[in-house]
Amino acid sequence: MNFEFDDDTEAFRQYLKDFAQSELAPHYQSDDREGRFHEGLHKQLAELGLFGLLIPESLGGQAAKYVTSGMACEEIARADFNAGWLVTNSLLLSDIINTHGSEAQKKRWLPPIASGEQVPAICLTEPGHGTDAGALEMRAERDGSIWRLTGEKTSISLGMHAEYALVFARTGGPGAGGVSGFYVRLTDKEVSRTAYRDVGGRAIGRASIHFDGLPVAAEDMLGAENKGFSTVMQGFDYSRALIGLLCIGSGQASIDEALEYSKLRHAFGQPIGKFQGVTFPLIEFSTHLRAARLLSYEVLWRKDKGLPHTAEGAMVKWWAPRLSHDAAHQALLTFGQLGYSEDFPHAQRMRDIMAMEIGDGTAQVSKLIAARQLLGREFAP
Ligand SMILES: Cc1cc2nc3c(=O)[nH]c(=O)nc-3n(C[C@H](O)[C@H](O)[C@H](O)COP(=O)(O)OP(=O)(O)OC[C@H]3O[C@@H](n4cnc5c(N)ncnc54)[C@H](O)[C@@H]3O)c2cc1C
């Protein structure tokens, strides 16, 4: 057993932590109020190599371990959950392309993601199909040598900002076996977008995206025809740990701030940190967050080692977002009346973290995945 990062990862963590606290934390709440990321953020994150962590060095990336990418998500989210979400989204998509793309596709698509030139999105969910994504209706139809994409994708993270997207559409018969993935440009005239007014994640710009016969070259299909669904689902196993660490970083920040506050705030002639009613809930959350963090890193360690991690990833996905949300809530209460003010970040953290109780799969479906792994496929409903 070894509970330490290697020396390089630890040095990078310290650097990221300092960077995030000095450069990102001051914008976390103002970006939420503005409903967009502040100027220069994308460039800063790209210069740190964060979008390219899972991209080969020959294509402008860092070729980092999955554990390192999780550490980056955690440290960035500790200061700014939404900047961490931005990074997580690019990590997932770039890794799908790197795993399933042809050499020519990787050369075209990965360098602009690593350099931060292009913000990509993942378009799977539709108005009629979320959890049951394999039933999606969007059509890709052959038109001579090209495909044409028609339909609506909904609830797309970064949907208002992304220049490119991996879009899943039906190319074959019913069910998950008839779905293919296409990497497409979103700036063409056949694409239109509608913004959501969201509870949290406001800088992310979630959107519905309409495709009205968008022409796509045959060579822009990612992976084999009708194999798109298994491609993306495979990617989602370890990304659940990245999402877990995103949430844990943010929830832990609130707990750390509440512990500090409990030393400073006095009531009845003593610091409130002397009251067990104040400290016990904070200690309980510290314990649970620590355990969820270790499970998240175990998933990424397993991915690095090529070991199975589907059940562990699903466990993190149902647990970490809810736990981290509740931790931020407990921290808010520890600050008393001050916590209820937007001068403090706890309520925003609750709103932001809550996104991950739904995005990338709800708690119910995550538990179904874990149950299928532990009990066997014959116990799937
Ligand atoms: C902030 C945010 C960001 C997102 N970003 C993206 C993105 O970038 N790209 C993308 O493609 N999608 C994205 N999504 C969509 C997300 O993946 C879906 O919302 C999610 O998969 C659930 O689908 P749904 O909302 O249609 O709910 P539904 O599938 O309609 O489910 C409704 C309720 O029923 C429950 N339920 C459904 N089936 C079962 C079952 N078999 N057993 C028990 N309970 C069940 C669900 O858990 C849920 O509580 C995002 C969502 C959010 C909130």
From TrEMBL:
A Pfam family this chain is assigned to:
Acyl-CoA_dh_N
Where the record annotates domain Acyl-CoA dehydrogenase/oxidase N-terminal, the positions are 7-117
Q: Which cofactor does it need?
A: FAD
Q: Which UniProt keywords apply?
A: FAD, Flavoprotein
The answer to whether keyword Flavoprotein applies is yes
Q: Give one GO molecular function term.
A: acyl-CoA dehydrogenase activity
Domain Acyl-CoA dehydrogenase/oxidase C-terminal positions? 226-375
Q: Please report the stretch or stretches of sequence annotated as the Acyl-CoA oxidase/dehydrogenase middle domain.
A: 121-212
Family from the record: Belongs to the acyl-CoA dehydrogenase family.
Q: What is this protein called?
A: Unannotated protein
Q: What is the lineage of its organism?
A: unclassified sequences, metagenomes, ecological metagenomes
